[in-house]
Amino acid sequence: MIDLKQLDVQYVTNQIGEKTAVILSLTSFRELIEDLEDLAMAAERRDEPTISHHELLSELKQDGLL
User: Most buried residue, 19, 25, 27, 31, by most Cβ within 10 Å?
Assistant: First the structure.
């Protein structure tokens, strides 16, 4: 996860000095978007049933993925 203190953010201000926008590097922007997508996926799946690690390994082996 990206550390917000290390974003090297630049601000765009209006004529009276109020911050109105942010400028980020493309790398930082992409990392933030990826984090948001991960959080959205976790939120969508929060009500799904869980299985133990042992069960997961057994299923992966049964499916030939391990």
Answer: 31
The residues, ordered by sequence, that sit 6+ positions from 54 with a Cβ below 8 Å of its Cβ are: none
Hey, what amino acid is at 46?
R
pLDDT class of 1 with cuts at 50, 70, 90: low
- The DSSP call for residue 15 is T
- Dist. CA 60–CA 19, nearest whole Å: 50
Q: Would you say the C-alpha torsion 52, 33, 17, 5 has a positive or negative sign?
A: positive
Strand (E) or helix (H) holding 13: strand 10-13
Rounded CA-CA distance 24/30 in Å is 10
Alpha-carbon distance 14 to 16, whole Å?
Answer: 6
